């Protein structure tokens, strides 16, 4: 039986897909982003005030403005930043996996699963609050997302020689929908079990 994915390669960790680069020693700016993401996911960005975010990280609301010009700036940095990390990370994972498309697909599935398990709040924020971003920031997110999707499409096209780009794109979006369901399901299983289940299901969706 073909495995749905592999573990992260040498030097890799699930933190590669997290909102911040160093979760053991986050900067104040990174702490603010983490707290804002959680609050935005719970209440919606429009229902969260700067004072709420400040209280979550132990500073006064006005102190937030030393790091971000506005709440919209926080939302933009969250969504643009994680979109950049996904787009760049996908290309890196493909390169590390070697020339075989099956290995590349396993690497991409691992990467997306790690992202989803690390960032359930960001998935909720993206789905609900992306329309709230200013036009230029929303366009940047969508441009980066298209780049990420096309990395998957290229791999799937090499794996499924008879499928055109539209079919491969549909496969990719089906996999994203499955994996990104984790905000609603991940708490019911431990992380290892949930990760393995998602890998198996994503592999079946991508190759079936």
Using the CA coordinates, give the radius of gyration: 18 Å
CATH class of the largest domain: Mainly Alpha
Taking the alpha carbons of the first and last residues, their distance comes to 13 Å
User: What number of structural domains do the residues give?
Assistant: 2
CATH evolutionary superfamily of the largest domain = Tetracycline Repressor, domain 2
Strand content: under 5%
Secondary structure tally, helices: 9
* Helix fraction bin: 55-70%
The dominant shape is elongated
Encode the helix/strand succession as letters.
HHHHHHHHH
Overall SS class = mainly alpha
| CATH fold descriptor of the largest domain | Tetracycline Repressor, domain 2
What is the CATH architecture assignment of the largest domain? Orthogonal Bundle
Instruction: Kindly state the number of beta strands.
Output: 0
* Uncertain residue segments: 1-15
- Summarize the main sheet: none
- What is the average of the pLDDT values? 87
């Amino acid at each position: 039986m073909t495995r749905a994915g592999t573990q992260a390669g040498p030097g890799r960790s699930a933190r590669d897909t997290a909102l911040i680069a160093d979760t053991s020693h986050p900067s104040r700016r990174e702490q603010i982003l983490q707290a804002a993401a959680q609050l935005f996911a719970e209440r919606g960005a429009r229902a969260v005030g700067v004072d709420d975010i400040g209280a979550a990280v132990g500073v006064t609301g006005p102190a937030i403005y030393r790091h971000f010009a506005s709440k919209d700036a926080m939302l933009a940095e969250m969504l643009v930043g994680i979109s950049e990390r996904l787009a760049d990370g996908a290309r890196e994972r493909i390169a590390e996996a070697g020339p075989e498309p099956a290995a590349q697909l396993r690497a991409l599935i691992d990467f997306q699963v790690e992202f989803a398990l690390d960032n359930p709040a960001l998935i909720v924020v993206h789905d609900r609050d992306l329309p709230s971003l200013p036009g230029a920031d929303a366009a940047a997110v969508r441009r980066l997302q298209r780049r990420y999707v096309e990395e998957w499409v290229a791999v799937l096209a090499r794996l499924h020689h008879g499928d055109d780009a539209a079919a491969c794109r549909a496969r990719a979006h089906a996999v994203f929908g499955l994996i990104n369901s984790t905000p609603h399901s991940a708490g019911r299983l431990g992380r290892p079990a949930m990760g393995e289940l998602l890998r198996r299901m994503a592999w079946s969706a991508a190759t079936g």
